[in-house]
Amino acid sequence: MKPLFFPFTHVSEEDAAALLTCFNGFCRLGVSRLEELTPQEPAAEVVLPSDKEIGSVFAMIEDYRQWARVNQGGAGQLKARVPDIPYFTSDTGISSLKSTIESQAGDGVGQDLDGGDKQRNALLNALVFLRMAQEADGEIDQIDKKFSLISKSEARLFSALRGNGLPSAVDVASSDSSPVVNKDRGCSRTDKRILSWACFFREKIAFSTDTEPLLPVTTSSAVMDYFLSMAKKSTKVLDIGNFKVHERSCDQSNPWKRHLNDVIWDAVSGIHRDENRLIEASDGCAVIVDVQLHLFSDKAVTDIFCPPGQKGRKNRLIQGKGGEIPICLVHVKNKNA
C-alpha cells in the first residue's frame, strides 16, 4: 500500500513531515520535469504528464499571463498592443482579443485549447490549474517562511535590547508581525483543486499497470470536510487523536509505521480490530499526530475517482468490500517531525 498525496502538487515542509511521520514514503502528482524533490520528501514518487502535455501546459500558462499583461493598462494600452483591431466594438470583446493573442503566440496553443479531443482538453485545463495553484502555494509558503524569520529576528533583537540571553515567549508573541493566514491551502478553491487533481489521477495513474494499491491521503482538514459535506454516505472507520509517535530519526519509527499501515488496511477491508494495538512512543519522542480514515460510498464521491464509464476497469485505489473510497487525513501537531 502506498499513500497518494492529494489534491495538491506542491508539498510543503509541513506536508512532508506529516506524511513521512506516518508512512515510509508516498506518491504525488507533478506538472513539471524540472521539479526536484526537497530534502523533506526523499521517499516520494512523482507521477508526471507526457513531455508534450507539459509543453502545452506551459505554453497555455504563458498565453494566459500574456493576456493578463495586455489587460492591465486599460483600453488604450490594449488597443496599442493589438494594432490589427482598429476600434472597440461588440466584435472586439474578450473572445476576439483572446483569439488574436493566441494566434500571435503560435505553436497551436489556441487549437489545443478550443478544439480536438474533449478528454485531452479537459486534462490540459486541469494541468494548467494544478500548475498555477502549485506556483501560488509555493510562493505563499516562501512568504510564510520569511515572515517567520522576521519574527524570530525581532524577538532576538528585543531580547538583546533588554540584555537577555534568550528571547522570552512574550517577545516572540509581540514581535510576530506576520498577518493572520489560514495555513490550510484546501480552503482555497477546494472543489476546483479536487476535480482538477482527480482528472489528472484518472488519466495518468488510476489504471496504470503498477499493482501496488494506493491510499488517498490529505493533510488538509478543509479537503476532508468538503468530501464529508457532499457525501450522504460515509463511515469513519479510524480516528486516532493526540497520539504520541516516534520521530522519523528514531529506530522505532519504522515498526510503528508498519503497524499503522496494517491498521489502515484492516479498517478499509472491514476487519475490525482494536486501535489500541498501536503503542504510543515512550522513549522521549514528542511528535503528536492525528489520523482519520473515512470510507465514502456516496456516488458523488466515488464518481470523482471512478467515473461510471471506467468502473469496469481495475482501479489502483484501495477500495472497501462494497467499492467504498477511503480517504485518510493526517496531521502533525508539533514541528519536531
TrEMBL record:
Domain of life where this protein originates: Bacteria
Protein name as catalogued: Uncharacterized protein
